[in-house]
């Protein structure tokens, strides 16, 4: 049975006080409730030590990490440093890192290897642009992103990955892939795993949807056959909205 996961990506938002309040509220609401899905907060790195507590319902992850263990990389934080403070997971390959910081598939591959070597859970993002969607290259684009950064892993390490499919054209634009479009892409991703590894492994990997998911469309999206949860952006910044999405799996 694949794990259902709802993960909030705060991006570069919220003050420390606001973040602490949000994190506390979500944990409090989930306390004592039967957990039908795993819940994560991916927070700005400077907030990690203030939010990490192993006894909490909400696991805490980093939005980024550098593949080198140490060295002259001013402003970067290594995977080993993230692990040392108790970070449980890390986002790799988010479209904003690819587009704004020019992170290549080969660099993301290094990040994946470094994160797994430290025992961090990897949430690997993939997705296509509007142009790639409209010209029909979307499936090839996404599968190549996965192949280039992940398919060198052996089956044991590969099963430690969570995939987040994020159609770039549906992030922060107000546009959303239809439930059918999103599910079709998730099915194609799963087929690529079956081809590269096995059908059994493909069926065990959680694939999240990450494109403008909000309370009004969460049920339609997250209950599709091959969608195992959501990587939530703007709606994760408000406790009421985030809890409403989590409740999809109540």
From TrEMBL:
InterPro entries linked: Aldolase_TIM (IPR013785), TIM_sf (IPR035990), TrioseP_Isoase_bac/euk (IPR022896), Triosephosphate_isomerase (IPR000652), Triosephosphate_isomerase_AS (IPR020861)
First-tier enzyme category under EC: isomerase
Keywords tagged on the record: Cytoplasm, Gluconeogenesis, Glycolysis, Isomerase
Pfam families: TIM
Coiled-coil annotated residue ranges, if any: none
Reactions catalysed according to its record: D-glyceraldehyde 3-phosphate = dihydroxyacetone phosphate
EC number per UniProt: 5.3.1.1
Recorded family membership: Belongs to the triosephosphate isomerase family.
Name the UniProt record assigns to this protein: Triosephosphate isomerase
